[in-house]
């Protein structure tokens, strides 16, 4: 969110303050929409997904703790969790997810980046220390929103291997980030 | 803390990582919930935050195109409704304030009834559930002298349902997550023809009704669609005590495949929580 830290709006939403919902939509509507598009196969589905995400957001707004994470991270976390779950359920309903749609989603233009926050930069630095196949799978899964099947189709990796790379990559990344943080703060555990 | 074995924690991290990237199936959700319960010091959101940070989409949130006015209006109208749900699900799983009030009233009445059952006979038979979704978690008649005359207890109603033998599904299972944890035993009876049933269970941890409640769901899955049908909320006061919870759905359930118990905000939710199911039971095929 750049250098300017806006006043949190979720507390106002949780408190039912007038105008808080509009403010939240104005601030995070684009973020949720971008994520929903990435995890959806068509605009109508993405619109339904946006509604689902905001439903969760109203429900969980009171859980936001600014000491734990920036508000945008919390919003994105709630959104991603709902979108991943939603996609899983939809995939079960219609098991023949086709690759064309996935590729169309993956080909959507990425929003331009203004600047990297310190936290993002640290994570990105450590991300480069992962194995190439772990980076590839995590890029496709986390940053482009592809499913396990879609990644398998695109990379030629077996489904189980895709899952293993994603899992081990994220676990290793977490450890690398924590280790680097411990070093930066004087070697604490 | 003794449950925090290295193996358990390693598996917990695997599940958290999987959830953050591809999501979990319901059985994994259950496993995750159990491991989180055994490892209360673990930050359940850590991997999700890491994925968000790696994604970096939040860095340019202000630069992203906003919602269309029509979509924003839809979301706004949902926000005005305290329990929003998609139109197709409104009638299936939504809990209104009026229902919540009815639940709380029913719960209070039932608590009074439990105490009074041991000392006097009620006048009227316990009616067949008629749409109310009251949180009912009752004592096991084996544990006490509360034997009623003329009033079928939940246990008796359950036995009668089993005896009716009309398309009644009856499954039971028990599992122990950790050696130190109590066995969670589950017994489910569901009548397809009568569209009602009973969940008998023991071993779930107590909940604080002011903070959360357990909620029952029947999951109906076909090749074309998957739907979750609200089966009502209930509370657990003592994990060692056996509970009998009536399962009542608001709408016809054609082919329930799974019974799920989730943890929801007080009063229940309109939709099944994304993660953290303390109980998942496959129902298999109906007779």
Explain what the structure shows.
Chain A contains 9 helices and no strands. Chain A has 189 residues and is an all-alpha fold. The radius of gyration of chain A is 18 Å and the shape is flat. Chain B has 287 residues and is of the alpha+beta class. Chain B contains 7 helices and 8 strands, in the order αααααααββββββββ. Chain B has helices spanning 6-21, 26-38, 46-55, 69-80, 87-93, 97-117, 154-164, and strands spanning 168-175, 184-191, 196-202, 213-221, 226-234, 243-248, 256-264, 279-282. In chain B, the strands form 2 sheets. Chain B has a 4-stranded antiparallel beta sheet, covered by helices on one side. In chain B, helix 1 crosses helix 2 and helix 1 runs parallel beside helix 3. Chains A and B meet through helix 2, helix 3, helix 4, helix 6 and helix 7 of A and helix 1, helix 3 and helix 4 of B.
Radius of gyration of chain A: 18 Å
Low-confidence stretches of chain A: 92-115
Output mean pLDDT of chain B. Answer: 68
DSSP strand (E) fraction of chain B?
Answer: 15-25%
């Amino acid at each position: 969110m750049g250098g300017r830290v806006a006043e949190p709006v979720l507390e106002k939403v949780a408190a039912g303050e007038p105008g808080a919902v509009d403010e939240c939509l104005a601030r995070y509507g684009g973020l949720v929409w971008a994520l929903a598009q990435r995890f959806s196969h068509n605009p109508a589905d993405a619109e339904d997904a946006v509604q689902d995400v905001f439903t969760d957001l109203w429900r969980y707004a009171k859980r936001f703790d600014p000491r734990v994470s920036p508000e945008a991270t919390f919003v994105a976390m709630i959104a991603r969790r709902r979108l991943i779950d939603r996609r899983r359920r939809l995939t079960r309903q219609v098991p023949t997810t086709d690759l064309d749609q996935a590729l169309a989603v993956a080909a959507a233009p990425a929003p331009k980046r203004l600047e990297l926050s310190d936290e993002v930069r640290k994570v990105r630095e450590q991300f480069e220390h992962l194995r190439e196949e772990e980076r590839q799978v995590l890029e496709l899964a986390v940053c482009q929103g592809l499913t396990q099947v879609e990644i398998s189709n695109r990379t030629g990796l077996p489904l189980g291997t895709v899952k293993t790379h994603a899992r081990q990559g994220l676990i290793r990344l977490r450890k690398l980030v924590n280790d680097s943080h411990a070093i930066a703060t004087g070697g604490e555990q | 803390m003794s449950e925090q074995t290295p193996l358990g924690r390693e598996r917990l991290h695997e599940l958290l990582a999987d959830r953050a990237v591809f999501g979990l199936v319901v059985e994994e959700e259950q496993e995750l919930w159990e491991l989180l319960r055994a490892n209360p010091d673990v930050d359940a959101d850590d991997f999700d935050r890491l994925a968000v940070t790696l994604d970096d989409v939040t860095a340019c949130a202000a630069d992203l195109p906003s919602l269309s006015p029509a979509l924003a209006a839809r979301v706004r109208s949902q926000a005005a409704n305290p329990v929003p749900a998609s139109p197709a699900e409104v009638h299936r799983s939504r809990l209104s304030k009026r229902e919540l009030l009815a639940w709380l009233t029913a719960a209070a009445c039932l608590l009074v009834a439990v105490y009074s059952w041991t000392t006097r006979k009620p006048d009227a038979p316990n009616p067949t559930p008629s749409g109310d979704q009251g949180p009912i978690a009752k004592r096991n008649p084996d544990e006490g002298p509360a034997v009623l005359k003329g009033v079928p207890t939940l246990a008796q109603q359950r036995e009668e349902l089993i005896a009716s033998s009309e398309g009644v599904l009856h499954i039971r299972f028990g599992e122990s997550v950790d050696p130190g944890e109590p066995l969670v035993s589950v017994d489910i009876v569901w009548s397809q023809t009568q569209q009602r049933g009973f969940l008998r269970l023991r071993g779930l941890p107590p909940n604080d009704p002011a903070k959360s409640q357990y909620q029952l769901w029947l999951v109906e899955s076909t090749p074309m669609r998957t739907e979750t049908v609200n089966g009502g909320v209930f509370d657990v006061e003592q994990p060692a005590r056996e509970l009998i919870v009536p399962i009542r759905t608001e709408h016809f359930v054609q082919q329930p495949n799974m019974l799920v118990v989730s943890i929801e905000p007080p009063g229940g939710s309109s939709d099944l929580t994304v993660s953290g199911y303390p109980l998942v039971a496959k129902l298999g095929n109906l007779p």
